[in-house]
Fold these 3 entries.
Entry 1:
Amino acid sequence: MLAHLPVLQVIVPLLAAPSCLIIKRPVLVWMFTLMVSGAAFLISIALLQQVLASGTISYEMGGWAPPWGIEYRIDELNAILLLIISAISTVVLLAAQTSITAEISEDRHTIFYALYLLSLAGMLGIVSTGDAFNVFVFLEISSLSAYAMIAMGQGRRALWASYQYLIMGTIGATFILISIGLMYQMTGTLNMADLADRLPQVANTKTVLVAFAFFIVGVCLKLALFPLHMWLPNAYSYAPSIVTAFFAATSTKVALYLLIRFTFSVFGYSFSFTTLPLQELFLGLGLLGIFIASAAAIYQTNLKHLFAYSSVAQIGYMIVGFSVGTSAGLMATLLHVFNHALIKGALFLALGAVMYRVNSVQLNDFKGLARQMPLTMAAIVVGGLSLIGVPLTVGFVSKWYLVMAVLDNGWWPVAVLILLGSLLAIVYVWKIVEVAYFIDPEPGTPQVSEAPMALLVPVWLLVAGNIYFGIDTRLGVQMAQSAAQSLFGGSP
């Protein structure tokens, strides 16, 4: 059984998705989905332990040796991503049944969980596979189910957000498919390890340059990198709260994984950072994303919109670390992938708790809410402090290593800009604190009670992670450092 863990990671949720339609009863379907996600989480832990103990795992599908057959390849980089995706999925699902009762009609619960498992299977498949075409297949599985889940949000705006995401996501996926086709044309292989061996022989051809350009644009659309981010704020704002919490913590991280995997492992560091001005391009876009998205967040009155723009800014921080082009910079990016999943998972789940009681996430409806929902608002405050980068939170750890990486590279003006970007986060977080803690509710506003434990427990699990991994940094730092060094051939 242990030998088949790489494929079980994907097959279990993929086969479980249609099984939801057989179970039908909402509570039973929720329990079944939670068990499946928990199983994926346990498998990801076992895979990470195997990789750390014995190195990269290569799994041959159907006994066909790569590159002739499809290979699942698990190394330190994707083992970390598998752990993040499955862990966040499991914690989010703890709150799912309570949260969706307030936002999705009961007759659609079964469909919701089937789509959720399909999306989970797609993300795990993208990260696990060593075949470039399978990346596209799993990308479509994940994306199509995402479009449908976003459309389940309340009101017609959810349909528009889903349609907008569908158009932009389809363009991105098409660009990625064109890139894969061009690479296959030049090399005759789709195996990513085999591509890495053959692409250098044709690296100077226009076809490979075009393939690289198509891939970068396509994956940046999926990543929501500024200025290709316009689909993200509405998708996060009008989707059901559980969907927003899951996607905010995982989907953009999967796209970032693809960017890292193909630039470092497939096309190669030398080609990616010397043939094209990738470093300057991503550094500029990352910094612009930090400032423009943070400025946009300040003016939002819908808190889902606010934290959605904040996510675009946080993607900017990750891309700045990536653009440094050193092991230290990549380590800072991977560390922020882990930490940002904890931050945004906690924040959007907490907003889901507010939505459950207040049926609104408008800033005006947060007046005096800290007195009525103290635990929920405390969770939002801790998540906000982590976004800012206050010491003893995971956000501080990420920004510390990012600043150290850019300083090691001699980019002190960039370090200053990173710190200034954090000051903008203070502004939009303080807006929420001021309204919730220091402004009385409007006369006649109905009183609400604290969120139920079914919502508070998963919220505070992630909040506790924000604090614990902000104090004890060993696990996150060691995993990110090990993965970054392996991509640089073991060099520091």
Note: The mean pLDDT is 87.
Entry 2:
Amino acid sequence: MINIYDKKVKIVATLGPASDEKKMIEKIIKNGADVIRLNFSHGNENYFAEAIKNIRSVSKNTAILVDLPGPKIRTGKLNKDAINLQKGSTIILTKKYTVSDEQKIYIDYPYLCDDIKPKNLVYIDDGKIKLKIIKKINGNELEAEILTKGVLKAEKGINFPDSSLSIPSVTENDKKFLKFGAEHGADMFAVSFVRTSEDIISVKNMLKAEYPSKKFLIVAKIEKIEAVKNIEKIAAAADALMVARGDLGVEAPVENIPIEQKRIIYVANRYKKPVITATQMLLSMVENESPTRAEVTDISNAIFDGTDAVMLSEETAIGKYPDEAVAYMSKIIKATEKSPMFSGGGYKSRKAYGNYGGIGIGYLEYRSIESDDKIKIKRNVSDISDIIAETASTASKLINNCIIAAITRSGYTANLISSFKPPVPVVAVVPDDSAKRRLSLNYGVSCITMKNITDKNIDLQDVIDLIKDEIKKSGHKSPDYAVITGGIPIGEPGSTDFVKIVKLSC
């Protein structure tokens, strides 16, 4: 059963010890979670196999996102519980294994002395401790100045914000988890620490070679400065983007994060790819029953920016109130979408800039740090599906009390329509649950399964009747009209070539 008048912006909720039991999964989904994220940086394959089994037993419609750990570089073990690092002092960084102390810190990175140069910065423990390289001592060791004092504990993450690293973004461990996810029914994969479009292409090529009959959505996590610089090509290669504000907030100056968030969302909207805004959106709800006013504002502003989805991490994975966090997120989304200031995925009072997502006032004059010709929107008039999607979105703004219905085998047309952020619900008529789940990140899209949609002799009236029946089952009154997109023959991939306005109400 679908609810076409539910929130348009989607919610990604992370599963963890606080939320991995069936009853809690059911509450989280009931409260508005559209996608369940499994963070493979924490847990083992047995845990995730059981988690996937629990999710699927609760819901066949909820998408599963496997978040790959990527090449996380860490410090080593210590000779005590913690060591104090004093500002202005020097310390040795080594790639040769040793137990760390106040004089020397082991860093688990084999290319340390090749990639990290004098004057490069080193951030430890999410940037709480900052170092600057003074010189290379030998093939194993670097000397660094401590820029900020801090307490170092064992096995903390390392960031090299201004260094180009030799380690691949997709590790052998990631490849193992890709296979695991593909074989256990995952719908989406998030690739961590993406640097270039090649990182995404390599994942797609591997999955295509290993599982040619399956389709997956590949999300590029934008959390490195290199990724921000290469955002255009990454957006073109990926199926979706994630504004991963955690590590990005370590690598980039924290005051720049709102600007980078707007930039990433803007590019995703232009490339017609769904985008997730993530990290610390309701962090206070790890301990508290209600969010702060700043958190509510943050979520609302991300929606005004044009995000397709918002994500909960610790809030649902280890927080005390996982189901309440999802409920609050849903409440904030709905309130923002009902606001008279909100208009189809963005801020209503913005200047005209074309139908490429919602960019807030003051951001319209944004230009890429790359050359201006790279940021121009490229319209390929030979892509009929794109023109049909824009036509359907435009028509929906001119017709009172209507919906858009996209007949689509792969979800491609529904994704295109969603990217224009139409003000009305989008109903995607798809052939199976897998296609339905792949559209779980798309703004405003609900799905109906019609297994015989792949039949070439299917009648359009059958599709219309199905839509009316499903809306009736949900307890809502049927809209007056449907703007229907599809192709002849109906259901044929890549055949979308018509827009038809149909009266639904009697």
Note: Residues 393 and 422 are 5 Å apart (CA to CA).
Entry 3:
Amino acid sequence: MKIALLSRNTKLYSTKRLVDTARSRGHEVHVLDVLRCYMGITSHNPEIHYKGKIMSGFDAVIPRIGASVTFYGTAVLRQFEMMGVYPLNESVAISRARDKLRACQLLARKGIGLPITGFANKPDDIEDLIKMVGGAPLVIKILSGTQGVGVVLAETQQAAESVIESFLDLKVSVLVQEYIREAKGADIRCFVVGEKVVAAMKRQGKEGEFRSNLHQGGTATLVTATREERAAAVRAANTMGLNVCGVDILRSNRGPLVIEVNSSPGLEGIETATGKDVAGTIIEFLEKNARVGNTRTKGGR
């Protein structure tokens, strides 16, 4: 296969692993900086150019699109889809997962377990918003945050009101979620490929930190996900329309609760913690599924 890998940094662990693995299996891989791609949008003849050359003849595209370039990155990916190139994850699915509010609404519609969540822009009664999610302590998130940035734990009613008011004064809409105390600052990252959880790790926040993100100093260890957790992860992936993703789950007294579906999950933490060749599983999935025009959306929204 001829594979395009959309990544802004060739030195990243995930990018290098996917490139090396694909090439070791006999595939041709081109790493493209998504922001340097430019498109010709013409009826019946969509084109992508890169450094003065037309990008053509690709069988598959692997999007590794950072959150800060989601709009342009998904536009480039959509152009590949219009050209009939098979995407590991489709543009529409990535857009769904990146919109935290939309993702919560879609998961809730499917009956997938979530922390009780509120969303507000200019509430007339902040006390009622806090009461809606069960009161303090609670977690407050901004929609654009990634890797644990823009996530605050408010431990008291007064602190919750103050943080929410501060965000709203900055004209930032907020997600407000119940705090799952029994999770004890840990979550389970289930790595989904196709219809299966291929690896799972427990991420534990550092001492005094409720966020378990590895970028915030958390640690990762091998864990065996329960049948219920694996089922929730696969259902969440299917709801977003993602073939490959990381589904983050809290263990609560009422069962697994999904807190995020990550469309570009890193490979270093999961491969190091589990010892599994996740990159190989991803490339194998491409080998089985990459066919011209084999997309759900055909480049549409």
Note: The chain has a mean pLDDT of 90.
